[in-house]
Design brief:
The chain is of the alpha+beta class. The chain contains eight helices and five strands; from the N terminus they run αααααβββαββαα. The structure holds iron/sulfur cluster. This is RecB family exonuclease.
């Protein structure tokens, strides 16, 4: 782990309860941009959502890739990665037993078919790069930085590679089932978010932001510049101010669009004839936390 990133223990894993300041994460910032009411349902009301098998598969594949980079370089081959799937799934499903309820037809070998579909994502990964030739500085890196304006940014970066010359590459694996064109703007927003965080933590603008789409075996690389990150930082500050303003009054408006089909909360949404629960007030301590599912979309 680098010494320049703030690394903290996930909430609830230490001896004492962890109280954390409200922060902005890329997933929650994207939610607010997409639909303020969706942000409220997720970050303030914290309404439960039932993950899809594709989301859980994404979490599994991310965990396997993280473990793969924990192996000696020469062992990072596709068969070893596939061997990691079943034991990693055993651990994840023990930690979140509700995920096993997604699989109802054991006799039809539903779980085996699902694990086989995760193998395909790993095959796509190995088509894109050879992990034996890489030595990432960090995987699943928790980062946190307070901007000059007082906005606290927080997130998890799938992988950070640092070249001997000091150039930084931010890598994100995309495993979601949603069409790529729908997710691309969201993914780029997320990558710029991480670029701002790393730039402010280390004083170096990342050389490359790389998205690896494991469902279609393609990748997208982008080189940010400092002026762009300055503008993006202002955008993040404006989003946070808008969130705080809505948070005071509870005025989170719905903004319907094509992503409503992926929203779990139509039953509570006035756009679909529903009624939101009574506003519980601005949450303390934290309205910005991301789940493992958020991080693996
Ligand atoms: S259904 Fe659409 S408009 Fe309603 S909360 Fe969800 S994303 Fe927003």
């Amino acid at each position: 782990m680098p010494d320049t990133a703030t690394v903290t223990t996930p909430p609830g894993t230490g001896d004492a309860p962890v109280r954390r300041r409200p922060a902005l994460s890329p997933s929650r910032a994207s939610d607010f941009k997409q639909c303020p009411l969706l942000y409220r349902f997720r970050a303030v009301d914290r309404l439960p959502e039932v993950p899809t098998k594709a989301q859980v598969r994404g979490t599994l594949v991310h965990a396997v890739l993280e473990r793969l980079f924990g192996l000696p370089a020469g062992d990072r081959v596709a068969p070893r990665a596939k061997d990691l799937l079943a034991p990693t799934w055993a651990e994840l499903s023990a930690a979140s037993p509700e995920w096993t309820e997604l699989f109802t037809d054991a006799e039809a070998g539903e779980t085996d078919k699902w694990l086989a579909s995760a193998e395909k994502l790993l095959d796509a990964y190995f088509e894109l790069e050879d992990p034996r030739r890489l030595e990432p500085e960090a995987c699943e890196l928790h980062v946190e930085i307070e901007l000059g304006s007082g906005v606290l940014l927080r997130g998890y970066i799938d992988r950070v590679d640092v070249a001997p010359t000091g150039e930084i590459r931010v890598v994100d694996y995309k495993t979601g089932a949603a069409p790529r064109e729908i997710g691309e703007a969201k993914a780029m927003f997320q990558m710029k978010f991480y670029a701002v965080v790393l730039w402010r933590l280390r004083g170096v603008v990342p050389r490359q932001l790389k998205l690896m789409y494991l469902t279609d075996g393609q990748s997208l690389a982008y080189t940010p510049d400092e002026a762009e990150l300055v503008r993006f930082e202002r955008t993040l500050e404006a989003i946070w101010q808008a969130i705080l303003k809505a948070g005071k009054t509870g005025d989170f408006r719905p903004n319907p669009g094509k992503l409503c089909s992926w929203c779990d909360h139509q039953a509570h949404c006035p756009e679909f004839g529903g009624t939101p629960p009574e506003y519980p007030g601005w949450p303390e301590p934290d309205a910005g936390e991301e789940t493992a599912l958020d991080r693996a979309d």
